[in-house]
Amino acid sequence: MIKVGDTLPDVRLFEFIDEATEGCAVGPNAFPARERCAGKRVVIFGLPGAFTPTCSARHVPGYVEAAAELSAAGIDEVWCVSVNDAFVMSAWGRDLQTAGKVKMIADGSARFTQALGLDQDLSERGMGIRSQRYAMVVDDGVVKTLKVEAPGKFEVSDARSILATLR
After folding, report:
1. DSSP secondary-structure letter at 136?
2. How far is CA 117 from CA 31, 133, 134, in A?
3. pLDDT per residue over 90-120, tens digit each?
4. Rounded CA gap, 116 and 119, in Å?
5. Hey, which residues are catalytic here?
6. Thioredoxin domain spans which residues (predicted)?
7. What contacts 94, CB < 8 A, 6 or more positions away?
8. Looking at residue 26, what DSSP letter applies?
9. CA separation for the pair 43, 146 (Å, rounded)
10. Is residue 27 over pLDDT 90?
11. Are strands 134-139 and 129-131 parallel, antiparallel or unpaired?
12. What's the fold here for domain 12-166?
């Protein structure tokens, strides 16, 4: 499992882009995670799945509500990473009104999640390989804080807990 002091794995993730800009077409756009974090402080939080109860009711909304405070604490971007495709992550982001606050990042094949060592097998629950619930602060591609939840818990990876580590 990744730990504090480690560099993020150089794995591609995907973000759905709604408006074309220079270098980004409309639709799913791939980017290397480590490269995208270069020169930035990023909060990355992972969760089991889009539209799931705790993720939709508490985890993502907490980061949306805390976006301004995270920015004031020196965070450049906040990413929600889930083992879902970019189309699902985009729809979920629209549903939760994350625009401009939390980037909804797709790890559809679980490559990033597995490279972190934070995957879990939820096949018996019909979900396949998914992410554990976690949050990390990454500074210039290096993990500075890592909080991984115990199975079934939501106590250390929420926005308030991450804000407390930044103060």
Report:
1. E
2. 20, 12, 11
3. 999 999 999 999 999 999 999 999 999 999 9
4. 8
5. 55
6. 2-167
7. none
8. S
9. 10
10. no
11. unpaired
12. Glutaredoxin (3.40.30)
Provide the 10 A C-beta neighbour count for residue 114.
16
Query: pTM of the full predicted structure?
Result: 0.95
CA angle 141, 142, 143 (to 5 degrees): 120
DSSP 86: H
Per-residue confidence (pLDDT) for residue 26, from 0 to 100? 66
Burial of 1 from C-beta contacts in 10 A (0-12 / 13-18 / 19+): exposed
DSSP code for 1: -
Residue 25 has pLDDT above 90, yes or no: no
Show Cβ contacts of residue 2 under 8 Å, excluding neighbours closer than 6 positions: 8, 9, 116, 117, 118, 136, 143, 146
| pLDDT more than 70, % of the chain | 96
CB 133 within 8 A of CB 59: yes
Encoded amino acid at 24, one letter:
C
| Residue 65 predicted with pLDDT over 70 | yes
